[in-house]
Design goal:
The protein is α+β, with helices and mostly antiparallel strands. It is 45% helix and 18% strand. The chain has eight helices and nine strands. The strands form two sheets. Strands 6-7-5-4-9-8 form a six-stranded mixed beta sheet. A hairpin with a 2-residue loop joins strand 2 and strand 3. Helix 2 crosses helix 3, helix 5 runs antiparallel to helix 6 and helix 6 crosses helix 8. The longest helix has 22 residues. It is elongated.
């Protein structure tokens, strides 16, 4: 099969990121053969290798939102925590790693374009993101991004401190407390609520 035909079949999948297994299936070939063909397409500039066995169709820098679903497949995930807080303008720092929340196990995944910190969260607390589809991860709302980082840090460290947190003028406090009330563990619910109350007070003073 010619390289152009292989590339066309990948495009026909309608997915921005593909795995070696998916390429082998659509090309009806073995995994080693597919791996070699993908490497050649990447060398020619038609694909971008993200990490072993994962390639983006096209030559642009991979978007974390399209890479993340592949890293947590078959479990759903969304961008949250530090990454979402930065995108919403709630912190000044630009995180080097991509912070994600998922029903997948907690893990750190290194790619050629950065590291993904994937945090497992209780199913009752999964949600609160905008956008997203089977091939693109959603982005946590400002309230859910704050809840996720504080909740996850509370499970490890007790008291939580966030540097230079600033709340947007349309911040949804009701949404935030709704997630706090959904925490299954009474102990963690109290710890998260205490940390949120302290941080909200500090953050609110910045925009008064």
């Amino acid at each position: 099969m010619r390289a152009v035909d292989r590339y066309s079949r990948l495009q026909a999948l309608g997915k921005p990121v593909v795995t070696t297994g998916e390429a082998a299936a659509v090309w009806r070939t073995s995994l080693p053969t597919a791996a070699g063909a993908l490497a050649r397409l990447a060398n020619s500039g038609l694909l971008v290798k993200i990490r072993h066995g994962i390639f983006q169709i096209g030559a642009e820098t991979p978007d974390p939102a399209v890479v993340l679903p592949v890293l947590t497949n078959p479990y759903p995930s969304y961008i949250s925590g530090w990454s979402a807080l930065s995108r919403h303008g709630m912190i000044e720092q630009i995180p080097r790693d991509v912070f994600a929340t998922s029903l997948d196990r907690a893990k750190t995944v290194e790619t050629r374009f950065g590291r993904y910190e994937i945090h497992h969260i209780h199913p009752d607390l999964f949600g609160g993101f905008e956008g997203g589809s089977g091939i693109r991860a959603g982005l946590a709302t400002p309230a859910k991004a704050l809840f996720d980082i504080v909740y996850l840090l509370s499970t490890r460290n007790g008291q939580v401190t966030l540097p230079e947190l600033e709340l947007p003028s349309d911040f949804n406090t009701s949404e935030l407390w709704g997630w706090i009330e959904s925490v299954p563990s009474a102990r963690l619910r109290t710890m998260t609520a205490d940390n949120i109350a302290r941080l909200i007070g500090t953050a609110a003073s910045l925009i008064d």
